[in-house]
Structures are given as structure tokens and as C-alpha cells.
Amino acid sequence: MPHDDSSPYLAEGPRVGVRHFTYADGAEFTARARESKDLHHPWLFPPDSTAAYAAYAGRLIEDPAKAGFLVCEKDADGALAGFININNIVEGAFQCGALGYGAFAHAAGRGLMREALDLVVRYAFGPMGLHRLEINVQPANTASIALARACGFRLEGFSPDMLFIDGAWRDHERWAITKEMLRPAGRDSA
Asked: What is the DSSP string of 84-95?
């Protein structure tokens, strides 16, 4: 949906809105991260302490090569449902970024991240001016792969020993979408 100047969100759908991280979100974010440890392990490790959140949010807020988005439930007074980050943003001829995301346990399996990822992709290809987004996901992370596929990303390759996660170098599948691949808004093909 287009941005409404009276809305606190950069983009919003029927159930969620997305907005940038703020330092003030630390208490809720870290509480949700702690509640979600079992859901996230072994795939990701969002900050679960005040100091870790401040450093994490600081990078997303201050580094122009990163953009962080909080997924907020509209019918729950903006409660945090998850997060989506675009890292390694490269401008110039590339116009690309690498996506990472996670749902919080109370919101998992409810379709909120699907709605939010669609919103962030459209925001990235619109106001941010990007042309390509990539998602690198461990092959056994079936929920993350299902989300990428449902949002129109295509499998492009396999990268062995790509990222050091949870004490070891992990293989990843590389999924991507370009602006030209974007489905019309409101089209649900999942």
C-alpha cells in the first residue's frame, strides 16, 4: 500500500506495518528475541540484551549500507512480530541488497512475515531504488525457504561454507528477486 503521511509505517498491509528500527524498541525487541530462542536456533541469533540491541540497531540506523525494518502487528497496537533487514546495500550499477529476517515466536506461522516481506520488497524496489534482493538461507531452514518462494524469489544457486553461524561454516542456498520479477500488488500465489 502507498505510504500515508499520518501512518507510523513506511508501508502497510491489512495486518502489518513496517517501520525502521529505533533505539527505543530495545526492550520489546530483546524480550521477543529471548522468547523466540527455540524458534530461531540454529538459524539466527538476534540480540537479546540491551547492549547487544543498541549495537545491532545502531548499525541498522547509522550505516547507509544497511536498512532495518520492524514488522508490527496493526491489530495489536503495533506489537513487534518480527524483523527484516537489508544488508550489504550496493548502489551504482549493482543496486542490490541481501535480506535477512526472522519472526518472533508469538507471530510465527500466521502469515505476517509473508505480508511484511512483500511490503519490504516493494519498498526496496520503490523508494529505496534497488533492483535486486538476495536471500541466503541454510538448506534445512524450510520455513525461510518457503517464505522466500512464496514471495516470488527464485533459487539461483548454492554456496558451500558461506557463513559462520553457530560455531561452523554453513552452506546456503541463494534466492533472489529483481524488480522485473515483482508480481502485481495484491496477487496471492502461495
From this structure: EEEEEEE-TT--
